Amino acid sequence: MVKINDNFLKLPGSYLFSEVARRIAAYNAAHPEAEIIKLSIGDVTRPLVPAVTQAMHAAVDEMGTAEGFHGYGPEQGYEFLRQAIAQGDYASRGVDIQPNEIFVSDGAKSDCGNIGDIFGTDNIVAICDPVYPVYVDTNAMAGRAGEYQEELGRWSRLIYMPCVEANGFAPEPIRERADIIYICSPNNPTGAVMSREKLKAWVDYANANGSVILFDSAYEAFVASEDVPHTIFEIEGARTCAIEFRSFSKTAGFTGNRCAYTVVPMELERGGAKLNTLWNRRQCTKFNGVPYVVQRGAAAVYTPEGRAQIMANIGYYRENARIIREGLSAAGLTCFGGVDAPYIWLKTPDGVGSWDFFDQVLNRANVATTPGAGFGPSGESYIRLTAFGEAQATRTAVERVRNMFR
Amino acid sequence: MVKINDNFLKLPGSYLFSEVARRIAAYNAAHPEAEIIKLSIGDVTRPLVPAVTQAMHAAVDEMGTAEGFHGYGPEQGYEFLRQAIAQGDYASRGVDIQPNEIFVSDGAKSDCGNIGDIFGTDNIVAICDPVYPVYVDTNAMAGRAGEYQEELGRWSRLIYMPCVEANGFAPEPIRERADIIYICSPNNPTGAVMSREKLKAWVDYANANGSVILFDSAYEAFVASEDVPHTIFEIEGARTCAIEFRSFSKTAGFTGNRCAYTVVPMELERGGAKLNTLWNRRQCTKFNGVPYVVQRGAAAVYTPEGRAQIMANIGYYRENARIIREGLSAAGLTCFGGVDAPYIWLKTPDGVGSWDFFDQVLNRANVATTPGAGFGPSGESYIRLTAFGEAQATRTAVERVRNMFR
């Protein structure tokens, strides 16, 4: 009799987004005339830029000819894209990352989950609280999280690092030993960023303890502040302790186009093995590369036209973030994030619970948000607002929420 | 200190294809004038058909507009594609598979590997010998294969089912208990197929033992014989014991376009859990769907024009297979496969070793092949030839090999 992976049975339902959808639908049914604006979506809304669609059209044409056809590509990604990434995202910032340290993939979500394959199941994992659920669930599936404690909303074997107002929503290195540490900066859901100094402390911690930092910078394109690193490899010592996950999803609107990459430096060794070699073997065995057409689209992001066009879109979302942040702050609400990130982390007034405030805003302003408690216990009394909507709708939503407090 | 997954260190190097490439390169260097024809490639060479490129162009255009833009799609695939698959690959053959039993993915290789996530690591796995290396390596990575025994070229905990001339290269159910059984039909590398009768015996075995059959039919489009099933779900009882992997790679030339799907029937339960639910959770957590543009291309395969166009390509490869099979048989060589599959499994004359015959054919006919021994011990004294080349080159290659035996 086949044995299933029992760890799957320990997973609680993915309650957050389904419950948000259920409450919106219920409100809609009761108030069919209401025009609900969603500041809850974590997906981009601007179309692909012309440089990208032109490159994809050209690649589709190639694929339709005998001379231009591309079959299996390298599992690690085409050299033209790995080179463009090495140059455009690293060398241009004075960071030396070689193409053979870059693994092109179908998504940062896939890689953040799949990277677990190369690590033993007995490692101690540290995550932020609140947190992007994929880090938790993939470790739970692999058996690293222990048992789920319903009453606490926590797993028994994970180390939770509270991200709260007092630490700027960016934890300092912990006292306990953690083998694998997930850091997401700019952060989903809080919109906070790790300063150079704090990130250096984590790099030092990891090198001292033989830990590995899994650095998720899917929202890197939103970094605007001078003192915020764009890549962990700007930090001295990171090449011996960090793996970086990057994505074209938010940078270039690729959520429906599926392209990302993971950087595993050659110096990163544990247990006598190069992690680059292990990840390469994992990818060659369980992955077969990203579509040629998509890789051509991604490479176009690094052309001067592509760069200008995607930055215009990022600017559009940034302006939304500013409108939300400034508009709600002016109404007396306390907002975090939204400067170097597309997410605004709003403190509920008078410590009202996340879900209660979610309901208030939905009922009184007809604006959908995401309750912070859904991302972890320390998210209680916060809600997440996103800057990915349409500009006019975003203005209207902010105006409506402001009116709640007049 | 982080612990790596030690199972990775047990994996022997992936010797086969690198050694083939090395020998070809060495011969080329010594004989720069030689025009080597590769009957070794397992990749398609015909371009994408017009119905597919037209659909992809239209989808790229959509993605470039605010109204037509698609962000995150359903992790399981768009309904339009799941419907088209359910209708085109199943209902059309009288097989009832519902769209919610179909999971669209980026490749059968990915799915064949990732499916292991939902099973415990203590299951006993049975594979064919010779075999597609992904089944072995992914189980070795997960710790299900035991230790690698260098001298035998085998893993200690896997059950190897010899596929030899006596059983038509398709094993009967075994006496031992196997929890997970990989069956690939049409087979890579032997080109053999499982008859309805033999497949029924396996389905009965699996249902009697609570096993799960992982049925890889990536080469289904090549099935021509009446008595060969196109899907395992043509077999009574399969819905309670089988998962099927299908791909657009060989069907529609998508090796560089990356689209496949996996069918997990609703009735398939083990340990009180629906495997459909487990796989859905796995995919939602560690995968984010296939590019919209690619899914539109895949859906075009099911239109009347798309169907006619891809079948013309399959016909082209089939004709290559016929030329290889008949040409070499007429020269007194013994060939298997190549009727319902793009692979011809050639028995070496006088029991010569795979690698020796590979060298002979390379040196004397300037034709590259793949030594059968590379796929497992029972592949010794066979070589694999593929029908994916250009028609004229394939004819020339066959002529050259024939001349070796004149």
What does this molecule look like?
Two copies of one chain form a homodimer. By secondary structure, the first copy, chain A, is of the alpha/beta class. Helix content of chain A is 38%, strand content 15%. Chain A has 13 helices and 17 strands. In chain A, the strands form five sheets. Chain A has a seven-stranded mixed β-sheet, with helices on both faces. Chain A is globular.
* Averaged pLDDT of chain A: 97
Q: Could you tell me the strand content of chain A as a percent range?
A: 15-25%
Tally of DSSP β-strands of chain A: 17
Main sheet record of chain A? 7 strands, mixed
Largest interface comes to: A-B, 80 and 80 residues
Evaluate the radius of gyration of chain A. Answer: 21 Å
Low-confidence spans of chain A: pLDDT under 50, at least 5 residues? none
Number of helices of chain A: 13
Class computed from helices, strands and strand pairing of chain A: alpha/beta
State the order of secondary-structure elements of chain A, H for helix, E for strand.
HHEHHEHEHEEEEHEEHEEEHHHEEHEEEH
Cα(first) to Cα(last) distance of chain A is 65 Å
Shape of chain A: globular
Provide the helix percentage of chain A: 25-40%
Oligomeric organization of the protein chains:
homodimer
Which strand order does the major sheet of chain A show? 2-10-9-8-7-3-6
